Amino acid sequence: MKAALLEQFNQPLNITTTADPQLPSDGVIVKVNVCGVCRSDWHGWKGTNPLIARPHVPGHEFAGVVVATGPDCKHINIDDRVTAPVIMGCGSCPTCRAGQLTICDTQHVIGFTGWGAFAEYVAVPYADTNVVKLPPALDDDVAAALGCRTTTAFAAVVDRAQVKAGESLAVHGCGGVGLSAVAIGAAVGATVIAVDINNEKLQLAKTAGATHVINAREVDDVPSAIRDLTGGGANASVEALGVTETFQNSLRCLAKFGRHVQIGQPLDEHATPMIPLLETVYYRQLAILGSRGLSAHRFSALFDLIASGRLNMQQLFGKRITLEQVSDVFYQMDNHEDVGITLIDTI
Ligand SMILES: [Zn+2]
Ligand SMILES: [Zn+2]
Prior knowledge:
- By secondary structure, this protein is α/β, with parallel strands linked by helices.
- Helix content is about 30%, strand content about 25%.
- The radius of gyration is 19 Å and the shape is globular.
């Protein structure tokens, strides 16, 4: 099959022909129609994700058609149009049986612990538990764009922070997952304040439903600006970059009893940031929540939000590219120059 192979970190992917993926007995093979390019692919390409062993095929935000099913896969069929969460639970351990697939101890992280979907075909294990059939009205490009970013944002805003209509939500960082958090916050009826340093991204955040936007380079103090706009602080705040400064801003912008949700992956020096504990968590009695992925059985709630018309994914789309152009997008991500959701639709 044709695939984009990561052989050397921080170097262009090698577009080449490799062996087709092996069919897991409990899994399926999916012919990839569309695949998103995510910042976590970029982290893997930079060499900061310890899960990746080279040579490697990245890519975890796919939509496609099932072309083969293993003997132990009972509920997914050939020709089903599908996607799957980036974090796949085994389906049989106690946490999976309790419905919490994203914290499974033996999770398969597609495009990280195994080869991903920057290729013609991708193998998906634990298929009965994790493969999500797409509703007929949901296009492949929308399903791919949900990828990990919108599903992660949905889990963060709806399931973890439990943001309700009439509340205020701050979103720090308007890359793919941040923009998705803005759109989901707006879709559930929250007042959304979006923060970034790129006016093009802030414009897209407005389109996605942000009530207010803040260019962090143009204000002295981001938390104060948010506290002024919200009359005392946001009810919930999402950090979508994995950067110490925005993490601290997210905590400091919150109202009493506010909920911080960490969805940016804090790597390297950002892995162990200083926490303004006394001012925020202690006196304001804040909650610090982590959010990573969305269990397959929750996708239907996200599909419902799209079907209701309150969440328009197309407005978040950025560039359409070929597999050959993925490396160019990674180089743009070095400088946060990528805007909107980039989709590979020619493989
Ligand atoms: Zn499990
Ligand atoms: Zn991702």
